[in-house]
Amino acid sequence: MYTLKFNDEGLELRLKQLQSQLDDMSPVMQDLGEFLVQSNQDRMLKGQQPDGTPFAPRSETTLAHYFALKIKHGAQPLNKSGEMRQQLNYQASADGLTWGSNAVQAAVMQFGARQGAFGSSAKGSPLPWGNIPARPFLGVSDEDRSAIVEELEEWLG
User: Fold this and answer.
1) HSE on the CB side for 10, CA within 13 Å?
2) Tens digits of per-residue pLDDT, 59-92?
3) By the 8 A CB rule, do 21 and 27 touch?
4) Is residue 32 within 8 Å of residue 98, measured between CB atoms?
5) Whose CA is closest to 146, among 4, 2, 8, 26?
6) What are φ and ψ of residue 90, in 5° steps?
7) N-term to C-term CA, the chain
8) Are 55 and 20 spatial neighbours (Cβ–Cβ below 8 Å)?
9) Residues 2, 33: Cα–Cα separation, whole Å
10) Helical ranges in 7-141 per DSSP H
C-alpha cells in the first residue's frame, strides 16, 4: 500500500478543521480513496507517472519475449493485462487512507528491479531476466492535490 503524508500547511489545516467538525473522518477518507484510485487508474491507461512523465518504455528484449510467446499487451507499459490497474484499491479509516495494488508485480513496477534480484528460475536463468526500470504509478499529481483541496473544501462547506 502507498502511504501519503501531506506537508502542505493549507491541506493540513483543512484536515484539522474537518476533524474538529466531524465525529468520524471515514467518509472523507473514503471519498478521497475513491478519487485517488480512479486518478491513478486513469494515469496508468495514459502511461503516465504521477509527475506527468511517461513510463519507461518496454525494452526490445521484453517486446521480443512477448512476440515469441505470443503474449498480447497494451500499448503502454503496465497495461499488459490490466490486472494491476484493476486491482488498485484503498482502505479508509477515521485516521487515514492507504491505497495500492494487490497485483504481485506492483512493487517491481513501482520501484524497479535489477536482473537476478529474485534469484534464478528452475532452468537457471535470472529472475527477472533483465533490469526492470521503476515505473511509479502510485502517487499524487498536482491536479490530484488541487482536487483533494477542493474535496476537503466541499466537506467544510
Assistant:
1) 7
2) 888 888 888 988 888 777 777 777 788 899 999 9
3) no
4) no
5) 8
6) -140, 160
7) 31
8) no
9) 11
10) 9-21, 26-46, 60-68, 83-86, 106-111
C-alpha cell at 124: 537457471
Helix%, strand%, coil% for the chain, nearest 5: 45, 10, 45
Residue 80 has, within 13 A of its CA and on its CB side, a CA count of 16
CA gap 41, 68 in Å, rounded: 29
pLDDT tens per residue across span 4-41:
565 666 677 778 888 888 888 899 999 999 999 999 99
Q: What are the CA-CA distances from residue 135 to residues 49, 96, 131, 150 (Å)?
A: 7, 25, 12, 28
What cell numbers appear for 38 in the block? 480512479
pTM to 2 decimal places? 0.82
